[in-house]
Automatic annotation (TrEMBL):
Name the UniProt record assigns to this protein: Cadherin domain-containing protein
Organism expressing this protein natively: Anopheles farauti
Main subcellular location: membrane
Transmembrane segments: 64-89
GO molecular function, one term: calcium ion binding
């Protein structure tokens, strides 16, 4: 069998060409394989470095301060608020509410002298009822005498006698009655007991039971000596 030289050369050239192509393909695949091997590493790097938007969202979602420090800050804020309220309270509570007794007692005690003759001009002590509020603007006052006829009438916060007081004749040592105080703005009412103590005035002349009275006085008695009858 006869093989021409030209055919043999072409076959060898074809084989060499195929080998060259295979080598080129291998060389092209090697960088790709290396690139693919580096991809997991790059993916890991991208995982460790999140997107800036994700970083901001994650930062905002986390507490800025530790739990212990947050509790301390909350406690300090509450303390400051309590101090502010404490400083503001005296300005509000320091002022008595309407219809409260200014002395802090549940009742009011006054003193008045009995009348000298038919006089009704004497004043009580203190001269005004210690009740918080202005009777012309803030509150209304009304006297209540549950027993007997009224003895006083109101003049603002002052009591005025209606008739003379005779402590000896009426055996009158004190007068007890009530006053009703109503707050105009809220219509809230309160009854306050009042006790007026009547003091005695020596306005009656002396009275002698047995007459005449006789006694003996020594001639040389001292001027400051008091003789009992």
């Amino acid at each position: 069998m006869t093989i021409s030289t030209t055919t043999t050369a072409r076959s060898i050239e074809s084989i060499v060409t195929k080998q060259d192509r295979q080598q080129q393909l291998l060389q092209q695949q090697q960088p790709n394989n290396g690139h693919d091997r580096q991809r997991p590493f790059r993916r890991e790097r991208t995982r460790t470095q999140p997107h800036p938007v994700m970083m901001v969202t994650s930062f905002l979602s986390k507490p800025i301060l530790p739990a212990a420090m947050a509790h301390s800050v909350s406690f300090l804020l509450l303390l400051v608020a309590a101090l502010l309220v404490t400083c503001a309270v005296p300005a509000v509570e320091g002022k008595l509410q309407m219809c409260e007794v200014e002395t802090g007692q549940s009742s009011i005690i006054l003193d008045i002298e009995e009348s000298r003759g038919s006089s009704v001009a004497q004043h009580t002590n203190p001269p005004e009822l210690p009740i918080s509020g202005d009777p012309n603007e803030d509150i209304t006052l009304e006297l209540v005498f549950p027993k007997g006829k009224p003895t006083f009438l109101l003049d603002g916060k002052s009591l005025r006698l209606i008739h003379p007081l005779d402590r000896d004749e009426e055996n009158l040592s004190h007068i007890v009655f009530q006053i009703t105080c109503m707050v105009r703005s809220t219509r809230r009412k309160r009854n306050i007991p009042i006790i007026v103590r009547v003091s005695d005035v020596n306005d009656n002349p002396p009275m002698f039971i047995n007459t005449p009275y006789e006694t003996t006085v020594p001639e040389l008695i001292e001027r400051t000596t008091i003789e009992t009858i």
